[in-house]
Amino acid sequence: MLYRTHNCGELCKKDIGKKVVLSGWIQKIRNLGSLIFIDIRDYFGIIQLIFSKNLIQNHFNLGKEFLIKVNGKVVKKKSKNYNISTGEIEILVSKLEILNPSISPPFIIEDKTDGDEESRMKYRYLDIRRNPIKNNLILRHKISIEIRNFLSKNGFIEIETPLLINHTPEGARSFVVPSRIHSGKFYSLPQSPQLFKQLLMIGGIDKYFQIVKCFRDEDSRSDRQIEFTQIDCEMSFVEVNEILIFFEYFIKYIFKKIKNIQLEPFTCITYSDAMTKYGTETPDLRFVIKILDINNFIPKNEFEYFQKKKFIIVINVLKCSHYTYDQIYSIIKSIKKSKIEDKEIFWVKFFPDKTFIYSKKKLFTRENLVKIIKNINSNPGDLLFIFFSKKIQTKIKINKLRIDISNCLNVLKNYQIFKPLWIIDLPLLEWNEKFQRYRSFHHPFTSPKKEDIHLLEKFPGDIRSKSYDLIINGVEIGGGSIRIHDKKIQNLIFKHLGLSIKEIKSEFGFLIKALEYGAPPHGGIAFGLDRLLSVLEGKGNIKDFIAFPKNNSGKDIMVNSPSFLKEKKLKELNI
Amino acid sequence: MLYRTHNCGELCKKDIGKKVVLSGWIQKIRNLGSLIFIDIRDYFGIIQLIFSKNLIQNHFNLGKEFLIKVNGKVVKKKSKNYNISTGEIEILVSKLEILNPSISPPFIIEDKTDGDEESRMKYRYLDIRRNPIKNNLILRHKISIEIRNFLSKNGFIEIETPLLINHTPEGARSFVVPSRIHSGKFYSLPQSPQLFKQLLMIGGIDKYFQIVKCFRDEDSRSDRQIEFTQIDCEMSFVEVNEILIFFEYFIKYIFKKIKNIQLEPFTCITYSDAMTKYGTETPDLRFVIKILDINNFIPKNEFEYFQKKKFIIVINVLKCSHYTYDQIYSIIKSIKKSKIEDKEIFWVKFFPDKTFIYSKKKLFTRENLVKIIKNINSNPGDLLFIFFSKKIQTKIKINKLRIDISNCLNVLKNYQIFKPLWIIDLPLLEWNEKFQRYRSFHHPFTSPKKEDIHLLEKFPGDIRSKSYDLIINGVEIGGGSIRIHDKKIQNLIFKHLGLSIKEIKSEFGFLIKALEYGAPPHGGIAFGLDRLLSVLEGKGNIKDFIAFPKNNSGKDIMVNSPSFLKEKKLKELNI
């Protein structure tokens, strides 16, 4: 059976007069009495059909999403629509066939839909018929092909690593897979191909990459999926600098190719600087609102009110002293939502003419103010918010405040601005309150900086690692490190993470063994593909870039998974 | 730290005089007293270094697989080796550094190794350093990139389907994944993305593909892996013919691009013809040895000896009547290994001059023989083996005999000959002895041929489906079908497979639901990437084309998976 001679998007003016066969889904029906206009849609586009009343009368039940096939002739359209490729023509139908009828769809299948998230997930196949979702999937395909070809041309080879792997208790929770043949034993699904890509480097593969599914058994979070896709890369014989240079080139290439945007050279700051200046490890550089921790360099004895405060922090909104009281109070109001108390904040408008006005006049003299402004190197024209508190907890809210302020000021509305940032020298270890011991900041295979190794015994929290994260517009889209290739150092790190010799052997014995055969220096990086896409498109919801996402509690409500198994299956697996 | 200015494969005559830094693994050491020659190897190649005795004496412990870094100068080599790219030069070393020592490797790391399979699996990272395995991985990368670009250019988009899916009891055994958050419930790992790709078609995606991991919980078989990679494709608005044409073009493209081989047009025969002519659904067309079932058209009453036999089959080896007695008896000897008894076989040499000689003279007259030869349309020059038996079981060994014979005749030795074959019209259902009911031959979503649907009630085993397999050189490398897009037919098939209305709803409810919204006609195919590679290279062992394969019982003996979990983890999962 011939379903079509053309698709619904390819016919245009030059095809006028042609006889065609088309198949597509009914998008719209307009009944003008003697003539009926029907728009049909397929993957490629939308086209208008004209039916005489006679032709259609046996099919009076036609409705939206019916799949129909028509024979007809391309004719010139009277009222042209230049917004779509087929807008200058229409099809005069001579024969109609219903290929498959449709019941009434649960939501509107157009660019704007009335479907709520639950309904769109349940009928995902209908949601995919909508341009916004379909185009996201096409974009995802396009970016994946570009990435593969780019890396391949640059000497990387894609190697598939196994998905049924061994379970290691380090890191986040893994999903496990019971073995039927080896009763009582389990495989594990990888959180990343970390150790396998390291083994590939040890195996002499020079540059590896893989676009690969990874799995994390995490509790509900709207910006994460339990299965997600990683662009995973590893290189041999490199140090941090070579990785940063190459992958800056890589990200620039993607942005140029996909968005036609030429990115500026990436900013690069240390983790410690990021925390001081922005109060976060994922600063958004799009808006010039700096955070200054003036706790240590304000002469507290000169400010009675500051004496008992644990910290003092300034958020400096550059060139915004022209903001009105109303605007400032709406900012203060929004800040209060973060449970910052009124008494913990005051503001200063430092005008271009070097005069200033400020709130909480009772607490500070003008002289005080001049000192503060000097201390923080504020410039005329700045708008300052100053926070102080007895409670150290307030401090961790500061980054959120910075973003709240920027939202109030509408600084973020332009989604076409991208400000990538490398954060380097992240800590090797971090103190874990729950386990009362140090744990890896990234993972246990991250190389410490050579000059910091001596801190291992006394100040393990101060050791910096050869690691890096890539942040774009406040979102971490990738991260990696130089790995340990020295068996002794790897054993030392395992020991400091609290692993016994027996545990090291049983869980990482193969790695330690592999390091004995001339393992090369190597390092790599992994990017979250779902995140990268959502940042590229300036949209927050990664679900819109995944064909069949799970909901926030890890359910696929379309196919109903997870679900109960039959007793027989459980028995077979001995669970 | 600078590890290298060049890799070990790129330097040549034109670089003579250059100062270089190289890093690589020691492949060979030759100590000539005052001078020491060391070959180092990396991903790109191998190069010879010359050390003075003085330079090396602090490193007297150097051995194979040590990773070293050298500074040196490119000089002309006296005894040139034109087999390798760097064979006309060598490096006069001025500085040596050991980057990482190596203990003695468990097997020889050269093209030919003394490592047995177990050892090569356990130290897979060392096996990958060997060219044969490394080159297979590079080939796999290359073919994957070619496939992706080809399909992409032909309008297919790659869409990732989920790996944590719902469990359905149909088909082979699936692996399951317990959910921690939804206690007692399980995800399942896909055996193929079958239903998701169908949902994509229903979602209006015109052409989909995916190179994707699939999982099957099968018992040990050396030619299968529990996780394997599929090239999965699906198209809308097509019938069988369009799929065969496009994917013949696809396979031809791959062979041309990867092997520079222009394949002949593919042969296409029905399943029923394949069984009659070759006694198998995966015939190897490289050798012209036909099987003829003459049971029905030999006049048994004229051959006393045949009267009580259940079947008579002829294997006709074309143009081989010149084979000597010795050769024929070595064939007969090999045939006996298949437990065919001596009394169940005789042979005929039908010479070019139309005379013939034959074994078992007591049983047949020359007149008898002339009749047989006439009946099977044998030509002068043929060598015939005729099998007859009371036991029907012997019949199923015939295909193996055909292959045994061809092996004896060395017909298969040329691995550069490829004979692709489409098998079409496979049965929709097959009788399952164990379950005493019909089951799907492919899967329950395969469309029956319209003209056969009326057989459903009385002769379900006779229904042909709109399906096809691609066989190359006797190996099934792909298969697929047109799917059912009509809700009524899908329900009917489910019913005939013994599913109750309740079961249909709970297991395939989402599919039936999706078919209600104007599902398009669609069909597709899936190729086994591992198999395709092993056929392309003419090698049987698919493990050689997988970076980290499991052994025949599904174990990864390198990382030791599957393995036991800690009690705490099991508790968390409620299993």
TrEMBL record, chains A, B:
Cross-referenced InterPro entries: Aa-tRNA-synt_II, aa-tRNA-synth_II, aa-tRNA-synth_II/BPL/LPL, Asp-tRNA-ligase_1, Asp-tRNA-ligase_1_N, Asp/Asn-tRNA-synth_IIb, AspRS_core, GAD-like_sf
Catalytic activity from the UniProt record: tRNA(Asp) + L-aspartate + ATP = L-aspartyl-tRNA(Asp) + AMP + diphosphate
Annotated spans, Aspartate: 194-197
One of the Pfam families matching this protein, by short name: tRNA_anti-codon
Amino-acid positions noted as binding ATP in the UniProt annotation, renumbered to this chain: 216-218, 225, 476, 528-531
Keywords: Aminoacyl-tRNA synthetase, ATP-binding, Cytoplasm, Ligase, Nucleotide-binding, Protein biosynthesis
Residue ranges of every copy of the Aminoacyl-transfer RNA synthetases class-II family profile domain listed in the record: 139-549
Coiled coil (residue ranges): none
PROSITE patterns for the chain: AA_TRNA_LIGASE_II
Subcellular location: Cytoplasm
Record-listed E.C. numbers: 6.1.1.12
Entry GO MF terms: ligase activity
Protein's UniProt keywords contain Cell inner membrane: no
Binding site for L-aspartate: 170, 216, 442, 483
Family: Belongs to the class-II aminoacyl-tRNA synthetase family. Type 1 subfamily.
Assembly notes: Homodimer.
Its biological purpose: Catalyzes the attachment of L-aspartate to tRNA(Asp) in a two-step reaction: L-aspartate is first activated by ATP to form Asp-AMP and then transferred to the acceptor end of tRNA(Asp).
Protein name per UniProt: Aspartate--tRNA ligase
The organism of origin for this protein: Blattabacterium punctulatus
